[in-house]
Amino acid sequence: MTARYINRLFYMIIAALWLPGIAWAGTITLDATLASVSGVVVSLVFGLSTLGGISSLLYRLKDELIRHDGKLPAWPIIFVSANLVGAWLAGFLAFAICEASTVNAWIEMVSIAVAAFCGGKFIEFVAEKLYPGVGSAVAPNA
Amino acid sequence: MAEVRHSSDKDRDDLIQRGLNAGNNLKLALRCSMRLQAPVDLLRQVVLLRLYLTLSVMYTAVTFLQADRYIAAPFLALLSLSIVSFADLIINDWLPKDFYFITAYRYRHWIYILMALGITSICLVMAKQGDGAAIFPMLLDACVAVGIAVTDLLARYRK
């Protein structure tokens, strides 16, 4: 078995670990879960997710600025919006899951922040796989 | 023949020079805001804002630790972040160049981002437990922290 197959097997095992979680998340009814949540809490979750997204954005931005001699990414709007949209989606998903499972409030906050950071990174990773160099200071087709 | 300059001429020249300086500063500020770039001078002006933020976060953390309504760990984390930020401010910005705190300087934007994340998390917990009225000054601190983090990163690495 080559290293390539071992790598693929490793990814499949990681994906399979998530399957019970995804199946359980499918049983959450969003209306009933979010019925008792106030508007202030929703806006704060939005703010916390945005902060998670900004963290992942700054992480990448610093790398790009160092690598390309102080130049900003060629497509800054795509760069910023991809990170933030990923962070919002992941943050709200983490919030819904935590609300449905009634975990401790502090664990919920940490989960939302971490999920938002990982969401931003995940979108970035997918974008780089599909369009290599999309977040770079040099445009891919330049 | 040497030109005789009256005091009114000097005053006028001073005024013109001041006007030019003000115009240049305005142009620089506009250029920086348009290009999302912060010059190093701006970082020096941000020092006071950093001092306000550090002291405000320290005060918030100590107040909540004394009130003993919530668990202590998040507030201790916030307090330690604000102490690191205060040390960074004193050592790297105000003491002579012989003294430095290189780790805090290198990871300064992360300190402020973590501070903002901590403040927002505390606000969220307070809002969930019905203390919604007290969160707005803290949210202002979080916004200031994010602004400082972004300004610091761009000023240091953008060319």
pLDDT below 50 for ≥5 consecutive residues: which ranges of chain B?
A: 34-38
- Kindly estimate the percentage of residues of chain B that lie in beta strands according to DSSP: under 5%
The total strand number of chain B stands at 0
Structural class of chain A: mainly alpha
> Helical amount among residues of chain A, as a percent range?
over 70%
The average pLDDT value of chain B, as a whole number, equals: 78
Q: Largest interface by residue count?
A: A-B, 26 and 27 residues
Rg of chain A, nearest Å: 18 Å
Give the N-to-C terminal Cα separation of chain B: 49 Å
Order of helices and strands of chain B: HHHHHH
Can you give a write-up of this model?
The complex is a heterodimer of chains A (142) and B (159). Chain A is mainly alpha-helical and 142 residues long. In chain A, 77% of the residues lie in helices and 0% in strands. Chain B has 159 residues and is an all-alpha fold. In chain B, 80% of the residues lie in helices and 0% in strands. Chain B is elongated. The chains are: A mainly alpha (142), B mainly alpha (159).
Write a brief caption for the model.
The complex is a heterodimer of chains A (142) and B (159). By secondary structure, chain A is mostly helical.
Characteristics:
heterodimer; A: 142 residues; mainly alpha; 5 helices; 77% helix; 0% strand; flat; B: 159 residues; 6 helices
Task: Annotate the secondary structure layout.
The complex is a heterodimer of chains A (142) and B (159).
Chain A: H1 3-25, H2 30-34, H3 39-67, H4 76-101, H5 105-130
Helix pairs in contact in A: 3-4, 3-5, 4-5
Chain B: H1 7-35, H2 40-67, H3 73-94, H4 102-106, H5 108-128, H6 136-157
